[in-house]
Structures are given as C-alpha cells and as structure tokens.
Write a structure and sequence with these properties.
mainly alpha; two-stranded antiparallel ribbon; 2 strands; disordered C terminus; 19 helices; globular
Length: 464
C-alpha cells in the first residue's frame, strides 16, 4: 500500500479515536460547572431579590464534602479500573477494551442522571455515587486504550503531534462543557442537562465501534493479527517488575502535577465567585475553562514542537516551575483570575505532550497498555485523595452560600505543595534519564526502529 494511503488511514483512525472520549470528558466535568446547583438548597422559602438576582440557588442540597466526593470516587474508580484495564487490553486486545469501557461510560452516566431525580431523598447520593463509580471505571480504561492505540499507530512517526491532537479533541469535550452546560441548564434544567451528557456518551460509544472496526481491518490488511496475538499471549502481570525507574519517576511527575490542576478546576467556578467580586456563575465557568481553552489551541503545535526538538524531561521541569506563580497569584493576590487560569492552561499543555508521550519511549511495546493503565491509575488515585483533602479544607457540614476566603487560601497552598513535589520528581527524572542515555531529551524525533531496538534491549537486560 502507498505511503499516502497509510497516512490517510492512520489519521482517519486517529480522528475517531479522539471522538471516542469526547462525550465522557464532557460528562465528567458537568459537576464542575454546576457546583452551585449541586450544593444549592432544596427549597428557597425566604428568597430575596437583589439587582435582579436571588440570594438562593435551587439544587440538590449537597455539602462541599459530598460534592467533592463525586470527584473523588470518579478518580478512585479510574485508578482501580485503569491498571486492570491496561493488563486486560494488553492480553485481549484493543477492541475488548474499547467496547467494555464505552459501555460502562454510557451505563454510569445514565445512572448518574437518574439519581438526580431523587433530590431530597436518601437515594440521591448513593445512586449518583454508583453512577460515578461505573462511569469512572469506563472513562479511566477508555483513556488507556485510546493512548495505547495512538502509541501503536504513531510511535516513531508523529507521536507528540498525535498525542497533542488526541488531547485537543478530547479536551474539546471539557471546553464545550464549560461554555454550554450553564446555558443549557438555565434553559432546560439540571435533569435534562445530565441526560444530555449521557447522549454524548452514546455518540462516543458509536465512535468507539468505528475505531474497533478500523483497527481490526488494518491489522488484517497488514497481516499483523497473528503477531499481535502472539505478543498478547506473552503478557504477564509480573511484567510490572520490568518497568524501569524512569517510568516510575515519570508517573510521580504526572501525579503531582495533575494533583495541582484537576482538583483546582473542580472547584474553580465557586472559588472565582467567592473571592472575586462581579463574576456571575456563567462568567466564572468561562474563566475556569481557560485552562482547557489554552490547551485546545496549543496542544497540537506543542506536540509537533516536541517531536522535533525532544527535551521532554526539560519541558516537564519547566511546566512545573512555571505553574508556581499562577497558584501564588490565586492564593495571595486579587489579580484577575483569567490571567492565572490561562497561564495554567499553557503549562498544562506542555505537561500533557511532554509527560504522556514519554511513556512509550521508556517501556517495551508489549507492556505499554499495562504501563499506561498503571500510570492513569496512580494519577487518578492521587487526584481522588486530593479532592477529599480539598473537600475537608473547604468545609464538611453545610452547603454555605459563600466559603470563607481563608479556606480557599489553604486550598491554594495545598496546590502549591503538589507542584513543588512535581518539581522534585521531574528533576530526579532528568538525572536518571541522563545517566541511562538521555532518551527523553533527544534533540530530534526518533525512528520507530530505534525505539523498538532500545525497548527490546531494556527488556532483555532486566530479565537477566
């Protein structure tokens, strides 16, 4: 087959691979936009109107701790499901992971939307938590299989660009959520908003079926089915012991960085409204979404840049160091929050394309699914714990109309602590990588043959 046809086929598959997570990313961030409604009052008997707005928000009556628990259980289930899914995907193939993960996303989002109809009853929280657990088990494993497919089709070619494009289109779900969900909720109410998220998960499920068909068809055309199945039969759970030190330091770098970003985004809308005067809920959602807006613009170009210059380890340190001023401004000043959220979007973009695209360079291909799953698992476990810590910092007993500023400041200090830990881990990563050949900081993109040779060498040495 011609090179043009091969490239065309790969990018068509990449397009549907990106759509596969668009719905789940939209759905997972809905509570972040509707935090006021989730923590709003069940009734408003003594409402007063000031300048055309009321001082009471109707909602589900959750406390800050219960609200943050919705994010925590999602992260925990991502953590459990990702490591299991990574091994199973290596063992049984991409189609198995794609179909199972997408089905769980649809089922979990449906149960979450159904649970919202039971406001004021003891069934509300258990149903919504169960929905988030099922959804988390699907979305976590879906990210693993998506990254595995991207790495398989683009390793040694345009890996950074492919990861950047994947993250861009999947994060489009998060951006659309921040821009559209609040308007949709005002027009149609919370219940229909949550069911709208479920519908997007169904559409992503259809995209997942297309990915499965395209992946299988290409393997058959290239007569690779037998070799892929043979490699899958060799995968053992004990292969985790073969993962190198660079991999574990890379995982720690990812965990601490994401511990500073994702829990902040979960509470950013309310933080902006509570600390800065003059922002309505819709405007606060737009400002919070600047983290994803920046990444939406930058990820693909940064992926191409990193493909060309390398320096992944250096970029990992730089994006952590440069995130410190943003959280410092949010914690201790009244500088307009849009400056900080847009800046965090830039550093987050560099982190995505430099950290995640580094994993296929330091682990063998046959254990890539397990390595990615374990990385997502540890990352989401850390994010889940961070959400619980933040829920405790912000208050546990009442759904206060306005959380005291000192509580928000403590939350930002906690974020700064995570970013400092990320800096330490990334510096150690660069030291170890330099001693082992400097793979992560190569100045030009590698060929697939060079990558495979290095991975086979690492595997054979570690087995001795």
């Amino acid at each position: 087959m011609t090179g043009f046809f091969t490239a065309y086929y790969r990018f068509v598959l990449l397009f549907f691979n990106c759509l596969m997570t668009l719905g789940p990313y939209f759905c997972s961030d809905i509570p972040s936009v509707l935090q006021n409604q989730f923590q709003g009052n069940l009734t408003c008997p003594n409402t007063t109107v000031i300048n055309g707005t009321t001082d009471c928000v109707l909602g589900l009556g959750m406390t800050p701790q219960q609200y943050n628990l919705l994010h925590a259980v999602l992260s925990w289930m991502n953590a459990i499901a990702s490591v299991v899914a990574g091994f199973l995907i290596d063992k049984f193939g991409n189609c198995f992971g794609v179909f199972l993960s997408s089905s769980l996303c649809v089922l979990g989002s449906s149960l979450f939307a159904l649970g919202s109809h039971f406001e004021g009853t003891p069934y509300l929280l258990p149903l919504m938590l169960t929905g988030r657990l099922l959804f988390g088990s699907g979305s976590g494993s879906l990210s693993v299989v998506q990254n595995r497919i991207t790495a398989f089709w683009f390793k040694g070619k345009e890996l950074g660009m492919a990861f950047g494009l994947t993250l861009t289109l999947t994060r489009l779900g998060s951006v659309l959520n921040f821009f559209l969900t609040q308007r949709f909720e005002e027009e149609y109410g919370m219940h229909w908003t949550l069911w709208g998220g479920t519908l997007l998960c169904v559409l992503s499920f259809l995209a997942a079926i297309v990915v499965c068909k395209l992946d299988n068809l290409w393997l058959k055309l290239q007569r690779l089915v037998g070799s892929v199945q043979e490699e899958s039969r060799k995968v053992r759970i004990l292969d985790v012991k073969l993962l190198p030190l660079r991999y574990w330091l890379l995982v720690l770098t990812i965990v601490f960085f994401y511990n500073g970003i994702f829990p902040f985004i979960a509470d950013a809308c309310k933080f902006i409204q509570d600390k800065y005067s003059g922002y309505c809920q819709k405007e606060a959602a737009y400002i919070a979404s600047a983290v994803y807006d920046s990444s939406l613009i930058l990820l693909v170009s940064l992926g191409i840049l990193i493909d060309y210059v390398g320096l992944r380890g250096i970029f990992a340190v730089a994006c952590a160091v440069l995130s410190l001023p943003a959280f410092g401004l949010l914690a201790f000043t009244y500088v307009p929050p849009l400056i900080s959220t847009a800046w965090l979007g830039i550093t987050y973009s560099f982190a995505c394309v430099s950290m995640w695209a580094s994993i296929p360079l330091v682990v063998p291909q046959e254990t890539l699914g397990t390595a990615l799953g374990l990385a997502v698992s540890i990352e989401m476990l850390g994010v889940g714990v961070s959400n619980l810590v933040i829920g405790s910092i912000l208050g546990t007993k009442t759904s206060e109309a306005k959380i005291p500023l000192w509580r928000w400041q403590r939350m930002m200090i906690f974020m700064l602590g995570n970013i400092m830990s990320c800096i330490i881990a990334s510096v150690l990563l660069n030291i170890v990588d330099h001693r082992q050949g400097g793979t992560l900081n190569k100045l030009t993109k590698r060929t697939s043959q060079q990558n495979e040779t290095e991975n086979c060498t690492i595997l054979s040495v570690q087995k001795k």
